């Protein structure tokens, strides 16, 4: 792995390290390309916090993010290619905002990281805190499908993130998984094996012990398809750019015989 497009920094509020520290680490690891994908800020700081956890940068910080990335791109242009992006949750309520961000010319790419999804009117379900029923998995899958159809996102990060909830494996799990995988096949869409899942502890779920993600259940359905797969470090510390979790993600993808690509 010599490229990574899933990178965060202290600006998101739940990571550490300056943007330049990630660049220096990537160069030390022999990377040829590094993409920054800070969690997109929303106008009015919507979706800023989830309980006690900051989920994204403040809206007022986006100019600092863009300007710093541009400066680093120029400073290290002879050593590494730097690309500027966002990790985005898609909801149709903010469709015009995503269009404006993309059209601004400030970024090179966006990845889809569906941490939350619109459910019933006025209610959002969050993969980390507020999925109370496997019916919420269907809302998650529908949001992923709607985002894929826009053609706006380079790939779907941690597509099986919804399975970090301990709600058991039932028909809704199968339906949500099939929806995402079928859409990826039909749209020639890239899915990400997320290394950050390997940095999390093994948990005793209803169906047995496993990591919250990536999951055998989801990725076994990808095996045998032509779906392109990319490894994403999802690093929240500079030392995570290319650590043991990345190696574990690569081994996982190899073991599943996935169609891994190395560069966008």
What is the structure about, briefly put?
With 264 residues, the chain is α/β, with parallel strands linked by helices.
Helix content: 25-40%
Strand order of the largest sheet: 1-2-5-6
Largest β sheet strand count, sense and barrel closure: 4 strands, parallel
CATH fold-level name: TIM Barrel
User: Tell me, what's the shape?
Assistant: globular
> What proportion strand?
15-25%
Average residue-wise pLDDT: 96
CATH architecture: Alpha-Beta Barrel
- The CATH top-level class label: Alpha Beta
* Uncertain stretches of 5 or more adjacent residues: none
Number of helices: 7
**What is the total tally of β strands?**
13
Describe the overall structure.
With 264 residues, this protein is of the alpha/beta class. It has a single domain (3-261), classed as TIM Barrel (Alpha-Beta Barrel). It contains 7 helices and 13 strands. The strands form 5 sheets. Strands 1-2-5-6 form a 4-stranded parallel sheet. A 3-stranded parallel sheet has the order 9-12-13, with helices on one face. A two-stranded antiparallel ribbon has the order 3-4. Strand 1, helix 1 and strand 2 (33-39) form a beta-alpha-beta unit. Helix 4 (135-150) runs parallel beside helix 5 (171-186). The two termini are 12 Å apart. The mean pLDDT is 96.
